[in-house]
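[audit] Reproducing an earlier prediction to check determinism. Same input, same settings, fresh worker. If the tokens differ from the archived copy the diff job will pick it up downstream; this log only records the rerun itself.
[audit] input (285 residues):
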Amino acid sequence: MVPRRTAVMAGTALAGAGFVAGAAAGGARVLLTRQASIARRAIGKPLGERAPDADRVWKGSYGDPLDLLLLGDSIAAGLGAERPKDTLGGRLARGLAKELGRAVRLRTAAVVGAESSALAGQIDGLPHGYAPELAVIVVGGNDVTHRVPVPTSVRHLEEAIGLLRERGAHVVVGTCPDLGALRPVPQPLRTLGSRASRQLAAAQAATSVRSGAHAISLAHVVGPFFISNPEEMFSTDRFHPSATGYKRTAKALLPSLLTALGENDAVPFGHHPPAPGEGSAGAPS
């Protein structure tokens, strides 16, 4: 898939491409359009469209590598990190290797700017016969900023989960982050974004567990850190996570990854295992 734009610009289009069109009053349209312009100037586009390349075998000396696949948008790709080891994939690979005592072979198919509709294409682009043991999906922010209907978004997510399970993968979904944490976006635009992202996240979680995947509410388990410590958690564009932000996010995801692999019996608050009868991973039961 060829990215249409970066997730940064998608975020700043929150009003111009989305919520402005839904404003009932002309005065509200003017206000939100002005706020979108302010956000564009505040956020900018300093990070480009490519995250550091973290795809390799991590902790190779441990042997017997586990294949880890990352799908989704710029967060899954690791945009905002300056070093491969600080991307979400790098952090997850190192964390898993430490917990499992196994090497982890990372493959990142996530694309900056991707919406949920791109997930099937990311899977189709994988090498023939590639069968990851564990697949992590983080997507949704661009669906919100482009006003993709929630039922449409979750339909694409459900399809992707099914395709991954057919390949024998354990699937873990990090739901849409809370866009209300984006301080450069002024009020009331930020509140509207927060409401829409939380609605999508709830629908993603319900769809994931029904489809046999594990779901983690990023807004609940890591969102408070981004709201209370934005200077530390966000990168220079104030939109994507920093190295510290990715460290926190990976730490938040890790319990469900280990549970999906059969290493844990229980998960903490904000983590949702598959619905009974759906199985934790692999081919649908």
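[audit] rerun output stored. Observation attached for the diff report: Strands lie at 57-58, 66-72, 104-108, 134-138, 170-174, 214-216, 271-272.
[audit] end
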